[in-house]
Write a structure and sequence with these properties.
globular, cell membrane, 242 residues, mainly alpha, transport, TM_pro_TauE-like
């Protein structure tokens, strides 16, 4: 069992990540990872963040089930299912620090620019199915390398000016599916330490408390506050990878 200090840090990290993810729909790993990656080794921290994120996403899916856009999400998921195995293979055989830092810089610059931009230009409604699948592929690839599969789909939704309920309804099932698939691949490769299950069990109270409070906060914020929150979290996510 972990010591008291580790227990406290684990619970604080998971609660903060779950709250932010419940509010915004993503960024669990960006928030929780700021602590967890300093407490655990990456091969323990990343699967733990994925497992916790699945718990958060399950809560979010149930709470927002009436807003889910299954057709668009399935296209994202199909693309993501292709990207995740490539990422998991790279994670195990390649030094991915440069890739992570490059992606972090791009995300941080995008978020900073959009936060300072005075107006948002909404894209047209028609989007080819292959483009949606390509966005999913990018999300799956990045998610396997960083445990942040929602970053690219979230940026895409923001660029199109989607309302908060539409954005959550589209991205939420995708993030959940990518995390489940990535965990399954890690288990298949026998790279998932038994310690991850112990840490996950310990963190469950903080996980569900944070998720519930985050969903309540999501329902109470308006579109402007939600978008600013998402951009701020994208900025933090990008910086955390640099």
């Amino acid at each position: 069992m972990p010591d008291v200090t580790t227990l406290v840090l684990l619970s604080v990290a998971v609660f903060a990540g779950a709250f932010v993810s419940g509010l915004s729909g993503f960024a669990f790993s960006a928030v929780a990872g700021a602590i967890l990656l300093r407490v655990f080794q990456p091969l323990e921290a990343v699967p733990l963040m994925m497992a916790c994120s699945i718990g958060v996403q399950a809560t979010n899916l149930w709470a927002l089930r009436r807003s889910i856009r299954w057709e668009g999400s399935l296209l994202l998921i199909v693309g993501g299912l292709i990207g995740v195995p490539i990422a998991v293979s790279l994670l195990q055989s390649t030094d991915t620090h440069l890739l992570r830092r490059g992606f972090g810089i791009i995300v941080a610059l995008y978020a900073a620019y959009m936060m300072l931009r005075p107006t948002l230009v909404t894209a047209g409604e028609a989007v080819g199915r292959h483009w949606v699948a390509l966005i999913g592929f990018g999300g799956g690839l990045v998610g396997g390398l960083t445990a942040m599969p929602g970053a690219i789909p979230t940026i895409w939704c923001d660029m199109r000016g989607m309302p908060k309920s539409e954005q959550r309804g589209l991205v939420q099932p995708f993030i959940a599916a990518m995390q489940v698939f990535a965990i399954a691949l890690l288990v298949g490769h026998q790279d998932l330490s038994s310690k991850v299950f112990v840490d996950l069990a310990v963190s469950l109270p903080a996980l569900f408390a944070g998720s519930a409070l985050g969903v309540i906060a999501f329902r109470r914020v308006n579109e402007t506050v939600f978008r600013k929150t998402v951009l701020a979290l994208l900025l933090v996510s990008g910086i955390s990878l640099i």
